[in-house]
Amino acid sequence: MSGLIDLPIHKLGVLLAKKEISARELVEAYLARIEEVDPLVRAYLTLTREKAMEQAADADARLSSGDGVGPLTGIPLGIKDVICTKSVRTTCASRILENFVPPYDATVMERLHAQGAVMLGKLNMDEFAMGSSTENSAWFPTRNPWDLSRIPGGSSGGSAASVAARTCVASLGSDTGGSIRQPASHCGVVGLKPTYGRVSRFGLVAFASSLDQIGPFTRDVTDCAILLKAIAGHDSRDSTSSPCQVPDFRAFLREGLAGLRVGLPREYFTGGLQPAVEAAVRRAVSHMESQGATVVEVGLPHSRYAVAAYYIVAPAEASSNLSRYDGVKYGYRAKDGKNLLEMYKKTRSEGFGPEVKRRIMLGTYALSAGYYDAYYKKASQVRTLIRQDFARAFDACDVIAGPVAPTTAFRIGEKSGDPLQMYLSDIFTIAANLAGLPALSVPCGFDEEGLPVGLHLMANHFEEGRLLHAAYNVELAVGTERPWPDLSGPHGG
Amino acid sequence: MTISRSEVERVANLARLAFGPDEIDSFTSQLNLILEYVRQLDELDTSGVDPTFHALELENVLRDDVVQMSLGQAEALANAPKAENDAFVVPKIII
Predict the structure, then answer these.
(1) CB neighbours of A491 closer than 8 A, spacing ≥ 6?
(2) What is the rounded distance in angstroms from the CA atom of residue A390 to the CA atom of residue A7?
(3) Which of A218, A266, A490, B73 is the right S-S partner for A223, CB 3.0 to 4.6 Å?
(4) pLDDT recorded at residue A1
(5) How many Å apart are CA A85 and CA A91, to the nearest integer?
(6) DSSP readout, A378-430?
């Protein structure tokens, strides 16, 4: 059945429930699609064909008996390789975890399996989720399906590219400073970072524990509501997961925005934006206005310090989290360490890539004796000021709108030699992580070269419903029947 | 305030990383560029501002001290680069 790979979760769910298609047919269609276009896009690190066929058979059994059926039963998904999958290799795109096979599933995986979802494989990323282009993968870079000479964004580049290339229906990624929203924007898909604590981090390989969140990548906003609902909720194995009730997010997806106050931060539109990005974002804001929303100007005076604060806080946490890779319990061990200390150093120096080492060095320095107050404490105080900016802004508005990234997807190699320039591609997304806020990217247009632009929406803690409501209306205005990248023709390179 | 080459070597040792002379040079210049950018935080007066270590206010999360099933020994050792007699094996510790 042609066209199967073009359908979102909510349409496939209807076809599966009516038995017009089987989960087996659907998985076969995706495996064929992966074989056809993944050699171009290179989103997958590991394919789990046999497991996927077994899971599809299980889904078909559920669908015929009616037991254990949910909105994700039989839906083929891709999973970022930073999420532990029982007995399926999980590398974090790092040599140090090349042969790591987790003995347990992350909580999000248990939740997907409980519904009978199907996993197609594990998706590429920047090593340990550190990067904005997926070029820091130890294995190979992933390409943007809209233009194969460009990056898909990062760190969840494989998760975004696979949804855009239609090599999975939807995927999971993780976001520490923009790693879901920036690639979603660059690949023209919906990507949501939930409120800190909304989704369990149990089984998510830790980068910066006070910032990391798992979230969905989907074809449209309705699918985003479905996948978020499936993975959200309290988990006793993650003490930072919130007991806050998880609503039915689809109930927020109604037409019209009467009463919604949309805040536009004056600091976000002061130059430095690619004109096509600014135009698409402003057009999306006028769409919201014409659907009944009120637009107000808000101030986020400390947002320009967010990248600087982040590049102390995140590396500090990373340097501590990544101390576990010592060549003893799991992962790579260097061959010829004469004693324990030498083995540690050789293992870590051979196992980690340059960006990971850079951040471990930065974090170790910032936490070292004599510098703690000047760097880590200072950055954590600025984090308070950023949080207070948002608290004040959300007195005046319900959602904050702006660009996800200053430009559309850049070329492979364009920024890989300049760490600071790469860090600045997350300038609009980082503050939401520092403040723990939910935020999403929803496609809102294309630039003159046909590259997608995302609208960034942020809301107060646990108000994902408001985000989805606003994004749904943007999607209605922009059109849900967006074109997808054409990967069937001849491609150079 | 810049970070010196010898300080980079000291931090590398703390981080249990080893670098060749070329790498020490490139890390020194890259870390200085990043720290120079970070120092814009000094423009802000943060005296009296409480630091935020966690985005949401969290109190100690406690549970009852009940014995629960955990990973078995074989599973816990399955990924070890070297294991023997139900234990992780490491190189000589005392030199």
Answers:
(1) A40, A148
(2) 37
(3) A218
(4) 40
(5) 11
(6) HHHHHHHHHHHHHHHHHHH-SEEEEESSSSSPPBTTSSTT-HHHHHGGGTTTH
User: Is there a domain that residue A386 lies in?
Assistant: no
Full residue range of the structural domain in which residue A433 is found: 4-263+396-478
pLDDT for A305-364, tens place per residue? Answer: 999 999 999 999 999 999 999 999 999 999 988 899 999 999 999 999 999 999 999 999
Residue-wise pLDDT for A217-232, tens only, equals 999 999 999 999 999 9
Nearest alpha carbon to residue A480 among A5, A6, A3? A6
CA distance A130 to A423: 10
Nearest to A82 by CA among A48, A108, A114, A54: A108
Picking from B26, B33, B56 by the largest number of A CB atoms within 10 A of its own CB, the best residue to mutate is B56
Task: Check A328 against B11: CB less than 8 A apart.
Answer: no
Task: For A260-274, give the DSSP string.
Answer: PEEEEEGGGGSS-S-
The domain over range B5-43 is classified in CATH as 1.10.3210.10: no
Q: Looking at residues A69-79, what average pLDDT do you find?
A: 98
Non-local (6+) Cβ contacts of A356 within 8 A are A94, A127, A128, A130, A136, A318, A322
Residue A411 lies in a domain: yes
Give the number of domains in chain A: 1
Domains in chain B: boundaries: 5-43
Q: Is A85 helix (H, G, I), strand (E, B) or coil?
A: strand
CATH number at residue A21: 3.90.1300.10
User: Inter-chain contact A361–B80, Cβ cutoff 8 Å?
Assistant: no
For residue A77, tell me if it sits in a domain. yes
| ipTM > 0.90 (yes/no) | yes
Q: Which of A155, A171, A174, A241 is catalytic?
A: A155
Per-residue pLDDT band at A493 (split at 50, 70, 90): very low
Of the CA atoms within 13 Å of residue A250, those in its CB half-sphere come to 10
| pLDDT tens digits for range B78-89 | 999 999 999 999
Test mutation, A322, A328, A350, A427, chain B, max B CBs within 10 A: A328
